[in-house]
Input
Amino acid sequence: MTPSKSKPQQSESVAEGGKTTARYRRGQSGGRVRGEVADRQAQADAPSAAFWRFVGRQAGSTEDERLRRIERGLPPNLAQGLRSAFGLDDQEVSALLGASPSTIERRKRDGLPLDGVACERLDRIAEISHLALTVFEDRTEATAWMARPNQALGGDSPIMRCMTGIGAQQARRILHALEWGGAA
Output
């Protein structure tokens, strides 16, 4: 059987020092094949990956641990991760977190954490995002569901409903219905 001339297949994605790089199997010639495109994609995905790491950390924490993180304050770069993960614009991030883009940027520049309101909202978004990930079992599908307008939410997207506790509860109810096969 003759070896086929096919593109190298991605074998793994590795996070190193906050930067995700894609590694590829050796090409047919034996040389390592990794393009600049893969590196650029990994850099573009870094804020989104940071947000999803936060989601996983919050999901694996007790309520007391989550509360202590909220009280200490969360890093402002999570706002960029939120923006990147769900394709939000500055006004949407500002509305979700209750903080203007200039405030978020100033806190980032000055090395200050986000305030309690923004932190509590990020925690709420992380909770609903984790539930969506659990229900859909795929980050891409969970992200799409969170960002897409939903008729059951009056045409709002679940991510934007996370601005309030009541809105998040509505999104949670729909996800539970989807998880158990009931009507949403």
